[in-house]
Amino acid sequence: MLIRPARAGDAVAIWSIIGPVIRAGETYALDCDLSEAKAIAYWMGADKETFVAEEDGRVLGTYYLRPNQAGGGRHVANCGYMTHADARGRGLARSMAEHSLDHARARGFRAMQFNFVVSSNDRALRLWQSLGFDVVATLPLAFEHPVIGFVDAFVMFRSL
Amino acid sequence: MLIRPARAGDAVAIWSIIGPVIRAGETYALDCDLSEAKAIAYWMGADKETFVAEEDGRVLGTYYLRPNQAGGGRHVANCGYMTHADARGRGLARSMAEHSLDHARARGFRAMQFNFVVSSNDRALRLWQSLGFDVVATLPLAFEHPVIGFVDAFVMFRSL
């Protein structure tokens, strides 16, 4: 698997990954009817570095890295990761997360924060914990899951 | 004191409040060299409802209210408040905060969250606690204060 910076020409492949995740509305606090153009503008925005994970030339995962805050908070990174439904359970998310931690260190970030990990997203929660992230806050009933209703969300943090 | 929705014509007065706070860089995670145009676009952006507090016709405080997240997180509000240096210590921030809690309830928000309260900002911390906000997370050394260096930041939350 190769993880490399995304190019403009990856937009269609990236949409094929992030579109279904956004439409499902179960794991990211994004409007589930977000248009393709707006979703791509968000995911590949100028405020972010966007990467793709490809296998045999096919883009199967993508992540972005950005400062979580501006000004005095710009030394803490924030990332979002999504994997194509065809490639789940094969370690892509872990590989992207490890890549992002290395890249964030290389960029001089001192910590990484996830602002909103939906508590029902067991797989993500376990992955982040295994990579050294702590749950530093529980936001009570902060996410309305389209199937199971209101659930907690977590803030997760680790130093780099 | 009157708290009312901001109008386009309030931009100069709002900048006279938020400009010095942004330039100081001690309490908000915003770039301290943010241009006036960008600062106004941020504070009065289409994603926000912006209010001003005026006394004898002079705008002395301002706050914004917005959903803290999109999608399944849109029922939690977020606000930012700033008071003119000339009017500190006279209860303006408390009045704006109370107004914002009422307004958020009226808008149907179920909770309010502050994502990044700088731990050295004692006055804000005491005010939010007196208004029922809990510190739900300590973000270790997440803010670089221009005078005292790296300090913690807090995530604060209360139900409505």
Task: Give a brief description.
By secondary structure, the first copy, chain A, is of the alpha+beta class. The first copy, chain A, is built from four helices and seven strands; from the N terminus they run βααβββαβαββ. Chain A is globular and about 40 Å long.
List its traits:
homodimer; 160 residues; alpha+beta; 7-stranded mixed β-sheet; 7 strands
Describe what this molecule looks like in 3D.
Two copies of one chain form a homodimer. Chain A has 160 residues and is of the alpha+beta class. Helix content of chain A is 29%, strand content 38%. The first copy, chain A, has four helices and seven strands, in the order βααβββαβαββ. Chain A has helices at 11-24, 36-43, 92-106, 122-130; strands spanning 2-5, 49-55, 58-67, 76-83, 111-118, 134-145, 149-159. Chain A has a seven-stranded mixed beta sheet with strand order 1-2-3-4-5-7-6. The longest helix of chain A has 15 residues, at 92-106. The two termini of chain A are 24 Å apart. At the A-B interface, strand 5, strand 6 and strand 7 of A face strand 5, strand 6 and strand 7 of B.
What is the assembly state of the chains in this entry? homodimer
Task: Using a beta-carbon cutoff below 8 angstroms, give the protein chain pair with the largest interface and the number of residues from each chain.
Answer: A-B, 36 and 37 residues
Q: Report mean pLDDT of chain A, rounded to a whole number.
A: 96
Number of strands of chain A: 7
Helix count of chain A, per DSSP? Answer: 4
Give the helix/strand class of chain A.
alpha+beta
- Euclidean distance between termini CA atoms of chain A: 24 Å
Q: Biggest sheet of chain A: strands side by side, in what order? A: 1-2-3-4-5-7-6
